[in-house]
Specification:
six-stranded antiparallel beta barrel; 6 strands; Thrombin, subunit H; mainly beta
Length: 109
C-alpha cells in the first residue's frame, strides 16, 4: 500500500491558491502538506502536468506563501463545474518553506 511522504492537514480557515502570473484564483485549498496540496476549483479545469507559480493566501492571518507547483492529477467533483486537483510543490524559497512548516505545525494542534 502506498504511504504518503507527508501528513495532510485541513486549513483552519479559507486558504486560496492564486496564479501569480495572471493574478487569478485557481481554487481553494482543501488539504495541505509539506510536499503538496489538494484544491477545489470552480469553472476552471487545471491541466495535469501544468506548472504554476502560486501565492497561497490564508484568509484569517493574511499569511502568504509563494511557491511553484505542478498539477499531478485532476478530476471532476460532484458539484456542477467543480474539480479537484492534486499538486506537488516543486519550488519554494527557504523562508516560504519555513512559513509553510510553521503553518502546518499550527494545524497539528
Amino acid at each position: 500500500m502506498h504511504k504518503r511522504q507527508h501528513e495532510r492537514y485541513t486549513p483552519s480557515s479559507l486558504m486560496q491558491a492564486i496564479n501569480n502570473l495572471e493574478g487569478t484564483l485557481l481554487g481553494n485549498i482543501v488539504n495541505i502538506s509539506q510536499g503538496g496540496f489538494m484544491l477545489s476549483s470552480h469553472d476552471t479545469i487545471i491541466p495535469e502536468g501544468g506548472i504554476y507559480q502560486l501565492k497561497l493566501l490564508e484568509e484569517q492571518s493574511a499569511m502568504v506563501i509563494n511557491l511553484g507547483a505542478t498539477c499531478l492529477w485532476q478530476t471532476e467533483a460532484n458539484a456542477a463545474n467543480s474539480h479537484w486537483a492534486g499538486f506537488h510543490i516543486i519550488d519554494i524559497s527557504s523562508a516560504d518553506e519555513e512559513l509553510l512548516k510553521s503553518y502546518i505545525s499550527s494545524l497539528e494542534l
